[in-house]
Specification:
Elements: E1 2-4, E2 13-17, E3 31-33, H1 36-47, E4 52-54, E5 59-62, E6 67-70
Antiparallel strand pairs: 1-2, 2-3, 4-5, 5-6
Length: 71
């Protein structure tokens, strides 16, 4: 996942790589924004210095390695 800003907002926007095979070096990378509630959750965890954050019952984000992990 990556964090970016949009031209119309100063709020950070967290994104996840959403192309069919994110590990492929041949595919063009595509990114999708997290929903606003999830984005806020990730940003709060990041700003408070947490190492990881659970975004739902199946996924967590490792804020050190910048990875979304299926648990």
């Amino acid at each position: 996942f990556i964090m970016g800003n949009t031209a119309t907002s100063t709020e950070p926007r967290w994104l996840w790589q959403s192309n069919a095979n994110p590990w492929s070096e041949d595919e063009e990378r595509e990114y999708t924004s997290y929903p606003p509630e999830t984005n806020a959750l990730i940003e709060r965890a990041f700003l408070s210095g947490k190492q990881e954050v659970m975004i739902d019952q199946n996924y967590k984000i490792d804020l050190i390695e910048n990875l979304q992990v299926n648990i």
